[in-house]
C-alpha cells in the first residue's frame, strides 16, 4: 500500500506538500495540488485517518457509552446527543457495554489514545473516580450528578419522594419499588428515598428492565397477595406495561388491586393510562453534548414532571 513518501516521490514534491494537500492546507500551488491528487489516484492511495487526526489534533468523533441501545431511556438520550453532533458535523461512536467495566475502559482508552474528541457516559459500572482519571486526556461528561466532572442529571431522590407523596395522597399505604440494577448512583438515590419515606427492602424488586421482567414481578406480587405492596413505583413504562398486562390476565384491576407509577412517560404509558414521571431525555442528550466544550466543572439539573393517569 502506498504511503505519503511514495506519493511525494512519484509526484516530485516534498512530504510536507503531500501532507498539506491531504489536510486541505491553503498554501499549496494549484499545480502541485493537482500533481499530488493525480498521483494518489494512480497509486490508489487511501487517506490515513490516523495521520490526519495527528496533524489536526481532532477526530470529529464523539464516543457515547451506554449499557443498552434498545431501551427507550438510553435511545432517547442518544438521539439528543446525535442531533447536536449532526449539527456540528461530528460522528458518534457507540460503546454498548451491558454494564461491563472492561468495555467501559475500552472507550476510555480510545479517549486516551486521541481516537475520540470526547466521551459521554449515559450510565456506568466503573466508579466516577476511575472515569475522572481519564479527564486529562479529553472531555468526559456524565449523565448523572457528579461533584468533579461535567454532568447533566435529574434528581432521582426527589422524584421518588414526589411519587411517594402522590401515592399517599391517593390512599396507598405500602409502596414498593422496582429497579434494574442493585447498584449505581441513580439506583442508590431511589432506594435511599424510598427508605427515608419509611418503606423497606422487602418491597424492592430488582432485575426489572423489560416487559417480561414486569410480568415476572407481577406473578411474584400475586403470590404475595395481601402481604405485598398496594402500590409500585416502577423502573420504566415497559416494565409497568408488563405488570399491568399480567394483572389484567389474572382478572385483577389496576389501580384497585395495585397502583402503578412508572418512569419515562413513553407512548405505552399513555396508551395504558399508566401514571408516569416524565423525564426530559432528549434534552439530557443535548445538554450532555454541550458540556463537552465547557472546560470547567459544570452541573446541569433537568426537571421531572409527574403525569397522573388512571393507574393511580
From TrEMBL:
Top-rank taxon: Bacteria
GO molecular function: DNA binding
Chain ranges passing through the membrane: none
All residue ranges annotated as the HTH lacI-type domain in the record: 2-56
Keywords tagged on the record: DNA-binding, Transcription, Transcription regulation
Cited CDD domains: HTH_LacI (cd01392), PBP1_CcpB-like (cd06286)
PANTHER family: CATABOLITE CONTROL PROTEIN B, LACI-RELATED TRANSCRIPTIONAL REPRESSOR
Listed name of the protein: LacI family DNA-binding transcriptional regulator
Amino acid at each position: 500500500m502506498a504511503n505519503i513518501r511514495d506519493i511525494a516521490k512519484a509526484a516530485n514534491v516534498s512530504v510536507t506538500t503531500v501532507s498539506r494537500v491531504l489536510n486541505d492546507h491553503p498554501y499549496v500551488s494549484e499545480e502541485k495540488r493537482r500533481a499530488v491528487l493525480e498521483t494518489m489516484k494512480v497509486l490508489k492511495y487511501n487517506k490515513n485517518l490516523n495521520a490526519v487526526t495527528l496533524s489536526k489534533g481532532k477526530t470529529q468523533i464523539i464516543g457515547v457509552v451506554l449499557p443498552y441501545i434498545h431501551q427507550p431511556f438510553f435511545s432517547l438520550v442518544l438521539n439528543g446527543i446525535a442531533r447536536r453532533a449532526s449539527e456540528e458535523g461530528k460522528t458518534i461512536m457507540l460503546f454498548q457495554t451491558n454494564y461491563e467495566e472492561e468495555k467501559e475502559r475500552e472507550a476510555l482508552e480510545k479517549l486516551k489514545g486521541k481516537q475520540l474528541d470526547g466521551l459521554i457516559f449515559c450510565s456506568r459500572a466503573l466508579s466516577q473516580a476511575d472515569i475522572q482519571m481519564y479527564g486529562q486526556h479529553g472531555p468526559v461528561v456524565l449523565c448523572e450528578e457528579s461533584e468533579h466532572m461535567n454532568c447533566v442529571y435529574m434528581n432521582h431522590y426527589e422524584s421518588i419522594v414526589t411519587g411517594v407523596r402522590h401515592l399517599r395522597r391517593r390512599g396507598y399505604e405500602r409502596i414498593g419499588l422496582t429497579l434494574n440494577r442493585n447498584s449505581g448512583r441513580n439506583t442508590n438515590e431511589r432506594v435511599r428515598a424510598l427508605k427515608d419515606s419509611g418503606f423497606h427492602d422487602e418491597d424492592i424488586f430488582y432485575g426489572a428492565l423489560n416487559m417480561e421482567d414486569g410480568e415476572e414481578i407481577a406473578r411474584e406480587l400475586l403470590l404475595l397477595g395481601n402481604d405485598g405492596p398496594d402500590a409500585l413505583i416502577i423502573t420504566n413504562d415497559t416494565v409497568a406495561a408488563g405488570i399491568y398486562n399480567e394483572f389484567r390476565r389474572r382478572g385483577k384491576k389496576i389501580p384497585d388491586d395495585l397502583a402503578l407509577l412508572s418512569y419515562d412517560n413513553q407512548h405505552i404509558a399513555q396508551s395504558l393510562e399508566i401514571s408516569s414521571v416524565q423525564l426530559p431525555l432528549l434534552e439530557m442528550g443535548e445538554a450532555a453534548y454541550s458540556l463537552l466544550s465547557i472546560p470547567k466543572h459544570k452541573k446541569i439539573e433537568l426537571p421531572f414532571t409527574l403525569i397522573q393517569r388512571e393507574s393511580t
